[in-house]
User: Fold this.
Amino acid sequence: MGWSCGKGSARFRTKACEENRKISLVTYKIFLSDKMGPEHDQVSIATIGKDIEKTSVFEVVYDNKHARIGLSNEDAEFFESFSKEKHNKLLRKVDFRLVPVLALLYLCAHIDRANIGNAKIEGMLDDLNMSGIQYNIAVSIFFIPYILLEVPSNVILKKFKRPSTYLGILVVSWGITMTLTGLCKDFGGLMACRVVLAVCEAGFFPGAVYHITRWYAQRQVQTRIALFYCASALSGAFSGLLAFAIAKMDGVGGKAGWAWIFLLEGIATVLIGIACFFVMPDTPALSKRWLSAEEIRYLEIQTYIKEGGRSSMEATEKFKWSYLTDLLTDYKVYLQAFILFTASVCAYGLKFTMPSITKSMGYTSSQAQLLTIPPYVAGAIAAISFSKLADRYQWRMPFILGPMTLVLIGFCILFPLAKDIKHQIPACYIGVMLICMGQYPTNPAGSAWISGNLAGDTKRAMGIALNICIGNSGGILGSYMFLDSEEEAGYPTGFGIGIGLSAAVLISTLVLEWSYWSINKKRDAMTEDEIHARYNEEQLNRMGDKSPLYRYKL
Assistant:
């Protein structure tokens, strides 16, 4: 079954013409285009020969990477003939329409969940008669409904024909909740608003990541997630800048400055959420206003190729409990989630506390708000830069290890020096910068890594949500990392936790890389005869990433 052209060559077997082992140049180029990028479309076929035959379904093996591509002759020829110029033009159109919208909405999400840290240093605790531990509780309560509802939310999202409708409802809902937070009179009211805010925000990030994976080839995903996710970093900068300006309204209309932070930022979110219904792209098929029929066809074929072919995609389209069981029993999912968990602990712990840390350097509240901006800007730049490199080299592991090493160094700087922070301002500020530069590239890398290693549309949607769900549970720990009672001592518990977790994630990333590599190696050792003696076509289609034909991305 099948034949080989020697080391480093390609093996092909056509389903329709198995008896003569003819191969398809069209399919060969399609496979390489999806896996390696358009710059590698022109491939050498000297060792393959010119005697090719186009058939309906192909099974491809190239350099020990397997893919099942179900394409008609017409679709295969169309996809192969789509020029690099057309591809780049289409990519720019999708980038312009989709990524900025998602980034703006995620910016609103992070500002609205984290501006409680800005409100804190503007007198919120005194006005609501709250203690320091009550503040920590109000921050952490957000993450309980937030992490519990992420997976169900993505299942619901798949039932909507237009993702913009569902995501728009979420944005408007949390904007209204944020506005009402500015009217709170006591701790109980603040707690209620934080819970409702979490319910409304829970589905947005996993839904947005899933939405991105539906528009882009795997080699393009991490950079787009990073462009979208860097809004998380920029939210810290914008939040500090907005709080600095809005807090000057203290006393206007009988409202405190911290209340105006919630009111105005909530109203802005509602207006942006309403616009979401009209400007967010849904699917290629529903984007006829700005995509040509040719471009829509190309994107749909690209999706089928990424899913492993039409039959495979159709076989995994509907929800099945077995997909959830596979996810919950897959140790690799938990290793992936631990990466995001650590990033979330660091991100939320620092986000909720950075204004207090900068204020403890001896600056006023206004100056402390402004000093939070540069670290977040540096984090956004790092997220985009590392992600571009990861997509370029199609290798995720080094671009998690590198950033997390920066996080480890940052915590190691702050742990011994923060107790005397007023006399160690340059070193401590550099430590904060390094943590931000390391934590923000990690989430896009982790999200892209798992999205590329779950086959089947429904399973991928749930897997992305589950991964983010477990990862975001780190926000609970992050909420208690830095306790007010330890501020004068330099937050030794918080920085110590950061050191331990960042070191642990370096180890888990290496273990995960080895796991993917070893599984691929075992599958490489299986012959085509062994595979088809053990499984039939239907079984292979339904196995997703468990299939011996599937290769994990490193």
